[in-house]
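Consider a concrete sample entry:
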Amino acid sequence: MDEKQFEAEKNYQASMLCFRQMLEEGKITQEDYAKIDTIMLEKYQPVLGTLFSENR
């Protein structure tokens, strides 16, 4: 994994951690979370994030 891929992975995981917390707190719905995940996957194109995405 090169530096660019690492940064993309880190940014995706950090973003999704925040959104997962919002989901658990009831601030967003599961549907919202799935849409956000799709957007973040497209934006960051993480190498490992696609393996762990709940929105495959």
In short: The mean pLDDT is 90. The radius of gyration is 11 Å. The CA atoms of residues 22 and 44 lie 20 Å apart.
